[in-house]
Amino acid sequence: MQSQGGSSSARKVAVLGASGYSGAEALRLLAGHPSFEVAVAAAGDSAGSPIASVYPSLTPAYGDAAFASVAEASALGASDVEAALIALPHGESSRIAPGLVERGVRVVDLAGDFRLPAEEYPRWYGFEHTAPEWLGKAVYGLPELFGGQVAGAELVANPGCYPTAAALAIGPLLEAGLADPSFVAIDAKSGVSGAGRKPSDAVHYGRTAGSVRPYKVGSHQHTPEIELVLGRLAGAEVSVTFVPHLIPAVRGVLATCYAKTSAALEDLHLALTAAYEGKPFVRVVPPGEMPDPKRVTASNVCEVGVGVDARRGVLVAVGAVDNLVKGAAGQAIQNLNLMLGEPETAGLPVLGVFP
Amino acid sequence: MQSQGGSSSARKVAVLGASGYSGAEALRLLAGHPSFEVAVAAAGDSAGSPIASVYPSLTPAYGDAAFASVAEASALGASDVEAALIALPHGESSRIAPGLVERGVRVVDLAGDFRLPAEEYPRWYGFEHTAPEWLGKAVYGLPELFGGQVAGAELVANPGCYPTAAALAIGPLLEAGLADPSFVAIDAKSGVSGAGRKPSDAVHYGRTAGSVRPYKVGSHQHTPEIELVLGRLAGAEVSVTFVPHLIPAVRGVLATCYAKTSAALEDLHLALTAAYEGKPFVRVVPPGEMPDPKRVTASNVCEVGVGVDARRGVLVAVGAVDNLVKGAAGQAIQNLNLMLGEPETAGLPVLGVFP
Amino acid sequence: MQSQGGSSSARKVAVLGASGYSGAEALRLLAGHPSFEVAVAAAGDSAGSPIASVYPSLTPAYGDAAFASVAEASALGASDVEAALIALPHGESSRIAPGLVERGVRVVDLAGDFRLPAEEYPRWYGFEHTAPEWLGKAVYGLPELFGGQVAGAELVANPGCYPTAAALAIGPLLEAGLADPSFVAIDAKSGVSGAGRKPSDAVHYGRTAGSVRPYKVGSHQHTPEIELVLGRLAGAEVSVTFVPHLIPAVRGVLATCYAKTSAALEDLHLALTAAYEGKPFVRVVPPGEMPDPKRVTASNVCEVGVGVDARRGVLVAVGAVDNLVKGAAGQAIQNLNLMLGEPETAGLPVLGVFP
Amino acid sequence: MQSQGGSSSARKVAVLGASGYSGAEALRLLAGHPSFEVAVAAAGDSAGSPIASVYPSLTPAYGDAAFASVAEASALGASDVEAALIALPHGESSRIAPGLVERGVRVVDLAGDFRLPAEEYPRWYGFEHTAPEWLGKAVYGLPELFGGQVAGAELVANPGCYPTAAALAIGPLLEAGLADPSFVAIDAKSGVSGAGRKPSDAVHYGRTAGSVRPYKVGSHQHTPEIELVLGRLAGAEVSVTFVPHLIPAVRGVLATCYAKTSAALEDLHLALTAAYEGKPFVRVVPPGEMPDPKRVTASNVCEVGVGVDARRGVLVAVGAVDNLVKGAAGQAIQNLNLMLGEPETAGLPVLGVFP
Fold first, then answer.
1. Cross-chain Cβ contact B206/D197 below 8 Å
2. Which among A127, A145, C277, D185 is placed 20 to 30 Å from B287, CA to CA?
3. Model pTM?
4. What gap in Å lies between CA C107 and CA C101, rounded to an integer?
5. CB contact under 8 A, D187 and C191
6. Which of C21, C206, C248 sits opposite A203 (nearest CB)?
7. Mind listing the pLDDT tens digit for each residue in C32-91?
């Protein structure tokens, strides 16, 4: 499909939900991937429209190719594509992914459909899961923390943007027993692209410029995902209060995590550097510095850092990602690389666009 | 001095440090005050320059008046002005305010010079206090929580922007025994104007747009001020971990406060509404909604709200102010109104500029 | 209706279309007006909803008052209100205003319905005018240039934001014969609030941040209005090519006007200062400086300035307004003041909120 | 020097002025270049500091490498590096480039030092040119319009950001005789990064957010460069009035060009598409649409488009670039590719980061 980078030997991939921000970011990144080629880019309402009419910036790679329909893409098999990235609204991929996998297509799901136990869906996502038997088969695709399992997976649940930033920041500290799991407050800040491309009052420029506001206090669907991931690492229940905020930025998520600690700064920092030794997509900032999502814009890097309020015995672990890359499409391609035996970093920028 | 609103019967006021953002905001607000008139606007480096050359937006009120020097203004007495607002850098007002008060001038200090016990200054502000005997005479000017003392005060310590937002949000909950004081995490977000008018890498547009970053983790000078205020209200020590963040906005501070609670949402909300009954400058948002500093831009209002994570027994109390108004110049004028017997709301906007 | 500033002796005013950005700005400004009171705030879709639910920032002034319906407000008469501001979509006020005027209500129309000759509406606004006989009775309300006629008017056509900025900048230069009317290029830049409160892809934060783009090139409906106004001043046909651009800002319009000239800078500047001598809402910036809408944010002031490219004999006249104030609601109240015999500046801020 | 992409067979390149925004963008792009490697990154004040301390985002590629000094880099010869990009302040490269070229190093100069005839420097740049004999040897590196000459060049003058956007937009129309050269108004809008990394009041976030302002009206140093380029294409003198504006964005330049025309839209559009047939870095937007620099962020693409005000016989040609890429470092690498026989597009992104 791409005019750039496409070749007969390229491995074919489908993107479902390609007209949303995450899907389009997958199109952008895959266009520069040395081994993959987007064979099908499927969309809901935009099916039939030229990709370039929705994303003129993709013109050089996608020319006049049009979005396929999701129905069409849902019927693909191994003879069509090796793998599919699904970036559809929550509740849709759990209806589509099983069939694709059964027909031999490796799937990475960017929605929340395969991240939680079945019984959590009604409360947090508002729907009854339609394929609960598949939940056990899905591998949670946060390679830096649970990488070993991704390589052989047929179905990967790509983590949410907030869980990625939060877990990479405080996960190793809980794992090392340096953070008290009984009360973890996670205060996250997100750019507007996390809310998607659909116009609404909440993402109106006039509403958002100059604004910073909490939303879904104590009820955001990423809360149980964060608790699950951190619990796995801590080997114990972790009690998380999670409050996301919308800030006047397009890209970027910063998660600031608070927990009691009796550790010193150097020990906390050491736990992070040890955890991420040799990991190309995590950068531990030096003690005394703090992460900033601006510095990882358009890259697949997560910056993590830690500070400590020694007076009060509280640690402050901070993670920063580009929510559309390491928080969505980039991490999905990282998972795809691992699933299909490509180098983990193939096609994934490590230098943020700055300023 | 003003061409607008000035009159022979106006009560004369001086502003020291009038070329900084807070001082200039005082000039803007005082120009519309029904009873006060700016008789002297003093500045450091800008002394001698026309006010309008630094702030063209002030031209209609200040014409071609020039900044006086701080030295000049420091020598004023009761025959010159009734009161002075001091918006100089930390450490300067403690050298100037005592003399002014001794010469009969009522003083509101917008710096941190009269907010803490003497022994705290070296650690948090980096200087030895030069007038420790005055610390006991200064009244902390947060009228909604400690209003009674302001009226008779000769010297008022105007609260910091972060303490204002945080204390108005969680203060009444601690006072009512609804929040556990043993571990309070306060995650604050501030627009860039809080960093002042002086150019630096940190406030460069290219550095700040698209960025969100923590700074002074566990070491910000507002920390002991917040603990002091909350401790007074709680009647017990309150352990605060405070982390401010810089966000891509000009004005606005949002403070998100986390603490353990066993109270229900309605009780928390009730404690706030009871505390602010009849207070013109605090708006408690309805349960289920959250404050946003955008909505109070250029007004002296603080929005407060509270949510609860009932699963985990954690409350989330949130306060939002315009850091230059309720967080600085507006609150200073509110204090001045109370000190000089004017209506508390005189000259202070209650409607935010929105959008 | 207001809790603030309302009194039995206040003169009653209605605002139709009060839930849009311009209408809500009228509510904000009228709440602080010394003589007027908003008796009716009418809206379309929001009719019946509390004003504060749509604009929480207006709560202190409007409490729990609800929007009336436009139908209701269209039936008002002189015994209900003295005057009405109509900020409805183009094409609606021409159906409503005549009835109001006939029932003795003075009307200021913020839409484009009474600004052009009848024959221009199909082309520029896409509708056939339904009350062409009223076009001759409407007075164009740009008081600094055509002030004399406003005082006695029953129906005032409030100028568009772009025509206000452009005409105040280059109008006096054309009137003085210093600008060649045969080819005037007007390049305007507008914040997003000019596009209204309704969500759309064009005003999505993700679309607008980092973007600057021309729209309606050569076809914007303000083009004939600008030509008409400038033609009246020049006493000759003025050929205008007008291109507006959307920039990443909320408020503010800047109009940069290019025309051939043989005049020197001092003569051009003198023509502006002479034109605006004694006008409280126009500030001519000194030679060598240029206007900036940021400096007039939330005020009713228009900054104008002029430069010259002497090498090429081209003048560059620039005007800057807050599109919601001097470009809409503020100028409407200025007109109302003149129509009802109040001081021209009553209730209208002259100091911009800066920074 | 890079940990990423470096190899023994890579062709060595130096970047002088690597700590500025343009130089750092060159470091970012060169880190991903398939054939080039940054052997020396030299800076002025930052010499000796780790690159990553100034640009943490470059850490993954540059590790703990430090900036060399400019003096050191000025002494390089062909045995050290094949080529040098010079992104130093105006006036410095003309002292350094000749020596480098004489020692066999191919040079691309991103400053204005080799773009104009010697006699223009005092007026527009404020200095007397110190190497006027080299001006005739330098090739103007705008490959889409004057590509043939770049390949063999030893010294290339990389165009300014404004001339790039403006010339690519209106150049072909002047060349085709479709635009009247006697009065061309060019109204440009630029993000703040064009003003460089050095803090100043002009680039303070508080000054720039919500602001749009013209600067250097009729006196910007890119004016003669634009006239020279357009004159070459038109084969006649072109009279340009150029006014740049600063807008609240980080990256991006949009140039809106006005000129009289008697051509129809389709002819104008055809002239553009014909001019850029087969050019990988210019995208002509469809008739009825307009360029937007947001869509080319972080890419080397220039979007161009044209509209026409048929009523008035005026064309509106518009060009959009990322000022740090196609307007600086990207175009420099494009020139380097051509000079050194690499594929023109090597290492240069064609897909903008959007949103």
1. yes
2. A127
3. 0.97
4. 7
5. no
6. C206
7. 999 999 999 999 999 999 999 999 999 999 999 999 999 999 999 999 999 999 999 999
3-class DSSP state for residue A106?
strand
Cross-strand pairs, D283: D303
Nearest CA in chain A to C201: A199
CB contact under 8 Å between B4 and C350, yes or no, is yes
Alpha carbon distance B85, C64 (integer Å): 36
- With CB atoms and an 8 Å threshold, state whether D350 touches A21: no
Nearest residue of B to residue C28 by CA position? Answer: B351
Q: How many CB atoms lie within 10 A of CB C98?
A: 18
Nearest to B301 by CA among B253, B229, B238: B253
d(C-alpha D268, C-alpha D274), whole Å:
10
**CB of B262 within 8 Å of any CB in chain A?**
no
The residue behind tokens 């952008």 is A28
Contacts of A49 in chain D (CB under 8 A): none
Instruction: Please confirm, yes or no, whether B257 is among the known catalytic residues.
Output: no
| Under 8 Å between Cβ of B246 and B212 | yes
Chain C from 78 to 137: CB within 8 A of any B CB:
none
Half-sphere exposure of C2 (CA within 13 A, CB side): 28
The minimum CA-CA distance between B340 and chain A, rounded to whole Å, is 34
Q: How many CB atoms lie within 10 A of CB A168?
A: 31
- The closest alpha carbon to D291, from B237, B269, C245, B307, belongs to C245
Tokens of residue B44, six digits: 């450091």
Strand order in the sheet with A139-140: A68-69, A36-43, A11-16, A83-86, A106-109, A155-157, A139-140
Nearest to A296 among D57, D296, D351 (CB): D57
Residues 6+ away with beta carbon under 8 Å from A338: A143, A147, A150, A151, A344
Stretch 184-213 of chain C: residues touching chain D, C-beta under 8 Å: 185, 187, 189, 191, 206-207, 209-213
> How far apart (Å, rounded) are the C-alpha atoms in residues D337 and D351?
19
Q: How many alpha carbons fall within 13 Å on the CB side of residue A3?
A: 12
Contacts of A277 (CB under 8 A, 6+ apart): none
Among partner residues B28, B251, B283, which is closest to C351 by beta-carbon distance? B28
Q: What is the pLDDT of residues A287-332, one digit of tens each?
A: 999 999 999 999 999 999 999 999 999 999 999 999 999 999 999 9
Decide if pLDDT at A1 tops 70: no
Q: Which is catalytic among the residues A161, A170, A230, A336?
A: A161
Residue B256 is which amino acid?
T
Contacting residues of A for D355, CB less than 8 Å apart: 21, 193, 197, 250-251
User: 10 Å Cβ neighbour count for B161?
Assistant: 29
Residue linked to tokens 């879904």: A216
Tokens of C279: 């006008």
Nearest by Cα to B282 from B312, B246, B320: B320
**Alpha-carbon span C20 to A120, nearest angstrom:** 41
Quote ipTM for the complex. 0.96
Look up residue C177 and give its two tokens.
Answer: 């014969």
Classify the C-alpha dihedral B220-B225-B230-B231 as positive or negative.
positive
Cα–Cα–Cα angle for C181, C182, C184, rounded to 5 degrees = 70
Pairing verdict, β B253-260 and B282-284: unpaired
Three-state SS at A144? helix
Q: Which residues, 6 or more positions from C270, have their beta carbon under 8 angstroms from its beta carbon?
A: none
What confidence tier does C5 reach under pLDDT thresholds 50, 70, 90? very low
For the sheet with B83-86, list strands across it.
B68-69, B36-43, B11-16, B83-86, B106-109, B155-157, B139-140
Task: Give the residue from B255, B333, B323 showing the smallest Cα distance to B21.
Answer: B323
